[in-house]
Amino acid sequence: YFRNESSLTSTLRTLLFFSALMITLPVGLYFSSKAYVFEGSLGMSDRDSYFYAAIVAVVTVHVVLALFVYVAWNEGSRQWREGKQD
Fold first, then answer.
1. Who's near 68: CB < 8 A, 6+ residues apart?
2. Three-state SS across the chain?
3. What is the Cα 17 distance to its own chain's centre?
4. What is the pLDDT of residues 3-33, one digit of tens each?
5. Residue 82: pLDDT over 60
6. Cα separation of 69 and 6, whole Å?
7. Where are the domains of the chain?
């Protein structure tokens, strides 16, 4: 019973971590890359910087999703192996 609860807590913690990452990282990278990289360093126009910053945000979303799937897959297979040994 306690192992199940620990597993549930671990899964919930992972889900909350990646949910927070999914919200904050793309938005933060969108605005920071727009202001500092594309407009600041590269001197792009406002319109072009919106476009490229959106690409950065979309790529970030995909990277976070891929990391979540990887972590969830490894956590699930680890729990399955531990349950199989009992």
1. 14, 18, 22
2. CHHHHHHHHHHHHHHHHHHHHHHHHHHHHHHHHHHHHHHHHCCCCHHHHHHHHHHHHHHHHHHHHHHHHHHHHHHHHHHHHHHHHC
3. 8
4. 556 778 888 899 999 999 999 999 999 999 9
5. yes
6. 20
7. 3-82
